[in-house]
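Researcher: Let's try something more involved. This one mixes different molecule types, so please make sure each is placed in the same coordinate frame as the others.
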Amino acid sequence: MKVELQRKIEDLHARYAHALDDDRLEEWPGFFTENGVYRIATAENEARGLPLPVVYCEGRAMLRDRVQSLRHANIYEPQRYRHIVSSVLVQRINDSLVSSKANFLVVRTMENGESTLFASGRYVDRILLGEMLYEERVVICDSRRFDTLLAIPL
Amino acid sequence: MKVELQRKIEDLHARYAHALDDDRLEEWPGFFTENGVYRIATAENEARGLPLPVVYCEGRAMLRDRVQSLRHANIYEPQRYRHIVSSVLVQRINDSLVSSKANFLVVRTMENGESTLFASGRYVDRILLGEMLYEERVVICDSRRFDTLLAIPL
Amino acid sequence: MKVELQRKIEDLHARYAHALDDDRLEEWPGFFTENGVYRIATAENEARGLPLPVVYCEGRAMLRDRVQSLRHANIYEPQRYRHIVSSVLVQRINDSLVSSKANFLVVRTMENGESTLFASGRYVDRILLGEMLYEERVVICDSRRFDTLLAIPL
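Model: All components are placed in one shared frame. Result:
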């Protein structure tokens, strides 16, 4: 049933957003399949077909490592994210997989209270039905400016 | 039915947003139950467990008073809000109540045409089913900067 | 069925947003009925009842002309849009028509990587059911500042 599928995908995206925005980073790897891929790219490189991701993680172990280093390195200034996600398009690939495309925008708030439009772009996802996990989540950012972008996952 | 419940909650949030953005402030108290609570807090205070809301209103009478003073005091520069709401998560509390969590962002446009990202954060709500009214709406802002934040309800 | 109707309208808005954000401008006229109207106005003029649209197109032929001149004039700096759409309210007009109101925000990214909040406002639409096409899409911008607003459709 198409309405129900749409709701499930939007619910997954929403839970992902709140986990990051609530600083529950340890839950982040659990949104992916065991060998799931997380990749950040720029629209410019994607359009040119350049396979140069800004970030590339494959598998939960690597995602967990990433969270660990974020927690312990602590080289970045305290900050908070707010994800806004919209325009979710869903397409069935087969019985167990769907693809999803969505627009996003992230507002970043620093400890001094300054809020800025931090990133915008689109999520291009492949999602495993049943368990509702990302088999692949590609974050394609509109801008190639990436100052401290790598601090928290998008 | 879960899909239907989700739609109803998102519809309530959407009607609330349009009422404020259309400057129909007089309708605002009607989105709450008779003793409904409206509270604005900062993420910082919420995280520290400090019970210091920036704004606290309890009951429709108090909400109506607030609208009255906004209409008559007129101490603030003319401005317009635009609410963007996404990532709505809904959970049943019991037969008549649900809780909802959503991300929001407000763009403010001044009379001279200047538009800025005014506020971002999350709504944490308790909603009475049937009548579809807020029993409690907590607006948790990411930033603690609140210049003229109190002008229009968020 | 109300849930299904809501999904269809949100799906239309989402496909429209992705077509523009992916620079598939040639598909844009196809979102409208043969005589469909596309209009950009400012909230200020709408509130005053001034019938002075910033942009007015009637019919697919005129929309195609607009795309042609955008493609060939090329007087504007390369840029990318990102649409965020939320708070979609749907109302049936009759058996074949619905009206829809939605909030939007557009982030614009220039070639040098600079991203700004470009426009915000609301879509006020009349949509033909069955074919799911805009009979009328009115884009009411919060700000009356319109620098290079006319570059890409909103």
